[in-house]
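Subgroup meeting minutes
Present: P.N., E.W., G.H.
Scribe: E.W.

1. P.N. recapped why we're keeping a running log of single-chain structure predictions: easier to compare across weeks, and new members can see raw inputs and outputs side by side.
2. G.H. added today's entry (379 aa).
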Amino acid sequence: MQIKKRLFQLNLPSNRSAFLWGPRKVGKTYWIRHTLKDATIIDLLKTDTFAEYASRPALLRERYRNHKKLIVIDEVQKIPQLLDEVHWLIENKNIHFLLTGSSARKLRRGHANLLGGRAWRKNLCPLSYLEITDFDLEKIMTTGLLPPHYLSPNPIEDLRAYIADYLKEEIAAEALTQNIPAFNEFLRIAAITSSELINYINIARETGVSHRIIRTYFNILEDTYLGFRISPWKKSQNRRMITTEKFYLFDVGVANYLARRKPVIGSAEFGKSFEHYILMELKAYQSYKNPDLPITFWRTSTGREVDFILGDKNTAIEIKASSRVHETDIKSLLTLMEDGPVKKCCVVCMEREPRCIHKNIEILPWRIFIERLWNDDFC
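Output recorded in log:
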């Protein structure tokens, strides 16, 4: 059980700078130290480094105004004032930077200089199927795909520590609230309802805070790269469509731990987690290979639903965690096809071999689907 080379590639020209965002423990620092070996690294997690730059941000300009190599500032959100110095060095000395962070919210909240288009935006995601040897689907439902959790001999303890030390403390601090129990309960409910339509009022009722605060909590999770919304497809001409978004946490292991799920193959909990995992692959593909690719879902007011649509109806994807897909499982895809042209339709499932059924709908084993996805077969 090993991690292969990460799929993420920076491809940064020598006259450009970039932000690299991603949640804690996703592997940003490891990737930098093993990929950018000639770069100058300023690690703000080191207390002495943090202290000197926090007290005097101008040190960056004074030390590196004649520097020729790429400069990496790790966890730049810890000292937002450094970005003014970065801006000056980019403009006046043509120095290029890689600026990593786990919270764009801290920078925006502090009215930090986000460099006005002078830096590309990149994201590092949890592990992909193609990055792991001996991939164990059932295992990742528990461990998730953050590298230290997947490789851990005791992933439950690591997840417990991650949630206690990071999600429930540092992220709660982002909420600017003293109501930590309410935020903790929100995290649990967000995990339970992950992949479902967001109902702010119901979540507020269960959490004990207003629906406006719940909206803020969801924004915090997005700003700290711990979750994301999936928008509904809204362009149907023949049917009334649902306009409510869905929300997913960034990692299936974190979601299952918070929701206290222990999914085993064949259970309803596994089906929910399987859909979540496939979306993680779609999001990684989007981040690394096709940043402008829309990922939406299709749902009518009568309850017909297709899990994901890639692009402008390029590919419709239904997820079924079953070893046999039946005609009844493709009814929503058939309804969608009646609603307008869809270039490709597929059911991602646990069957062993691919096949085609009614109207050229492909039944694809999940491994084959992922390999074809990364070969750009669906976009």
